[in-house]
């Protein structure tokens, strides 16, 4: 995973220079909290690197205060910054470190304060853009829709279906654009705190048009889904997006009915505050999609795309070749067209100039995700991700035995095929919670699989006395297996014993330690939330 310290950026190539879980998915009984802790420690707390103040918004810190604790910012010389009420409700405050004080020293001290849950720099993100047929006048120039086998019938779901709300966290949206008028909700501005989330930059309008431009209205372009409402959430400006604005925007989208959240920006620094918001969104049944980044070959998949619960999207060219700038790596999930995409522009205009980058690949996937929800509003995020990935197209040059590659993910999104995918059978699959864990015994082998995104298989066994235990999980092509072993305390909560993820993708894992007598729980899951049609074998010794 990419743990390099860089700033978050909007992903535009020109700017860059080139059992299915319900909404109770994180309830204490299912054991997934340990996975989130693991992702947090591995992803949010990478090896320490020098802090670049140029990549931090106005020398600011994001600080989460522990409930019932009192934090005294004055003791560190911190200056309070006005933050949205939605952050205060989450216990998050933003402070500025005065220029005469050493930023890193103050950050280190605040992180050790007993009243503080976590403190982190307010990093900046950036856009990720490189600069029968419908009767829409410019449809002939929308090569990307033809490439993903979109049709007018697909874009006009069954009449009477409730519109799907897609939150676009970006630079705002031109709600008066003739191809978007009547399809944009009021939204919120977390940058200048204006009453509306108007777009003075244009990036958010370009992203929104790909998803939601009116279909078959004899003007402009066709959006992927005519049955959506865009929730504009302004979290950034012309160049960068402060992490505090992104976190506020995520919580706003969660609270205002979003079923899909599109994030066409990215950068190198993970954030605990962002990750907490993403976990909450997934627990509320929201599908998250983000641009992978435009920084190949220097960097891998950017954040927020690199968080395991987010669908990360790379960019392809007209001939299905991966775009040269498109960030890639083990956290890449899908690709979509991302070169010279014809779309809406601010002030009522249209164009494809400077509309290249993973910024414009992500909304392709968000649009198709919204089509799936138009057809079946009860779909869960992991079901949507599976349908998108199972139906994706991979050119021969990118295929491998595992069906997943660092260059192309599961493939390039396909609109028509995605709607036809059926869920795999989970008969015999181990459950994901202690109360339904599969009972196993030492000295035996068991077969299971990573059947869906977010899949976790939980097993339990009982020891009559203390003894050494060895757990072996076999290799699966393209998968990175993780073994977690836990016990349950007297309050019914799982307590951490040990998590093993040493060998990486395509290799097996071995867990070995001395365990106390009583009941222990094993969870096997995939480190990147990926899935496979191939099974693994678990041996207990």
UniProtKB/TrEMBL annotation:
In Gene Ontology terms, what is a biological process of this protein?
A: proteolysis
Pfam families the UniProt entry points to: Peptidase_S8
- The annotated active site, in chain numbering, is 170 (charge relay system), 203 (charge relay system), 359 (charge relay system)
InterPro entries the UniProt entry points to: Peptidase_S8/S53_dom (IPR000209), Peptidase_S8/S53_dom_sf (IPR036852), Peptidase_S8_Asp-AS (IPR023827), Peptidase_S8_His-AS (IPR022398), Peptidase_S8_Ser-AS (IPR023828), Peptidase_S8_subtilisin-like (IPR050131), Peptidase_S8_subtilisin-rel (IPR015500)
Peptidase S8/S53 domain boundaries:
162-411
Is Lipid metabolism among the key words of this record?
no
Q: Which domain of life does the protein's organism represent? A: Bacteria
UniProt keyword Hydrolase present:
yes
SUPFAM superfamilies associated with the record: Collagen-binding domain (SSF89260), Subtilisin-like (SSF52743)
Recorded GO cellular component terms are:
extracellular region
Q: Which GO terms describe its molecular function?
A: serine-type endopeptidase activity
PANTHER family cross-referenced by the UniProt entry: CEREVISIN-RELATED, PEPTIDASE S8
Q: What is this protein called?
A: Peptidase S8/S53 domain-containing protein
Tell me its family: Belongs to the peptidase S8 family.
Tell me which UniProt keywords the record has, alphabetically: Hydrolase, Protease, Serine protease
Species source reads: Fictibacillus enclensis
């Amino acid at each position: 995973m990419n743990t390099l310290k860089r700033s978050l950026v909007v992903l535009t190539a020109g700017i860059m220079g080139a059992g299915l879980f319900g909404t109770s998915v994180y309830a204490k009984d299912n054991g997934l909290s340990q996975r989130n802790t693991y992702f947090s420690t591995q992803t949010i707390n990478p090896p320490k690197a020098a802090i670049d103040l140029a990549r931090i918004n106005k020398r600011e810190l994001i600080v989460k205060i522990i409930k019932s604790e009192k934090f005294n910012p004055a003791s560190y010389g911190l200056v309070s910054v006005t933050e949205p009420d939605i952050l205060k409700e989450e216990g998050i405050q933003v402070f500025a470190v005065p220029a005469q004080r050493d930023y890193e020293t103050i950050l280190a001290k605040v992180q050790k304060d007993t009243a503080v849950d976590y403190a982190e720099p307010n990093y900046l993100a950036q856009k990720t853009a490189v600069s029968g047929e419908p009767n829409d006048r410019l449809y002939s120039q929308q090569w990307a829709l033809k490439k993903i086998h979109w049709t007018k019938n697909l874009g006009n779901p069954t009449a009477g279906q409730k519109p799907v709300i897609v939150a676009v966290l970006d630079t705002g949206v031109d709600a008066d654009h003739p191809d978007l008028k009547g399809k944009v909700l009021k939204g919120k501005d977390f940058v200048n705190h204006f009453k509306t989330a108007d777009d003075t930059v244009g990036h958010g309008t370009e992203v929104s048009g790909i998803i939601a431009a009116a279909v078959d209205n004899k003007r402009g372009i066709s959006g992927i889904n005519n049955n959506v409402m865009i929730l504009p959430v302004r979290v950034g400006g012309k160049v960068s997006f402060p992490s505090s604005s992104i976190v506020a925007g995520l919580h706003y989208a969660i609270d205002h009915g979003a079923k899909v959240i599109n994030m066409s920006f990215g950068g190198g620094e993970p954030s605990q505050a962002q990750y907490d918001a993403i976990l909450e969104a997934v627990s509320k049944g929201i599908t998250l999609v983000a641009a992978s980044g435009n920084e190949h070959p220097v960097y891998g998949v950017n954040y927020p795309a690199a968080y395991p619960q987010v669908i990360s999207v790379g960019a392809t060219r007209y001939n299905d070749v991966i775009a040269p700038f498109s960030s890639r790596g083990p956290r890449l999930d899908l690709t979509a067209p991302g070169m010279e995409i014809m779309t809406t522009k601010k002030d009522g205009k249209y164009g494809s100039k400077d509309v290249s980058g993973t910024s414009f690949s992500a909304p392709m996937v968000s649009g198709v995700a919204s089509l799936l929800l138009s057809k079946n509003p009860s779909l869960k995020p992991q079901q949507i991700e599976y349908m998108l990935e199972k139906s994706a197209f991979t050119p021969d040059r990118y295929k491998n035995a595992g069906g997943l590659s660092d260059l192309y993910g599961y493939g390039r999104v396909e609109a028509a095929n995605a709607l036809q995918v059926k869920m795999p059978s989970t008969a015999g699959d181990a459950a994901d919670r202690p109360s339904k864990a599969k009972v196993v015994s030492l000295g035996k082998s068991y077969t299971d699989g990573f059947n869906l995104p977010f899949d976790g298989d939980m097993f339990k066994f009982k020891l009559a006395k203390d003894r050494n235990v060895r757990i072996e999980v076999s290799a699966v092509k393209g998968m990175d297996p993780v073994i977690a072993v836990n016990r349950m305390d007297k309050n019914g909560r799982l307590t951490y014993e040990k998590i093993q993820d040493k060998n990486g993708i395509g290799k097996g894992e071995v867990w070995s330690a001395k365990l106390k007598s009583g009941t222990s729980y094993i969870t096997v899951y995939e480190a990147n939330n990926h899935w496979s049609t191939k099974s693994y074998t678990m041996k207990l010794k």
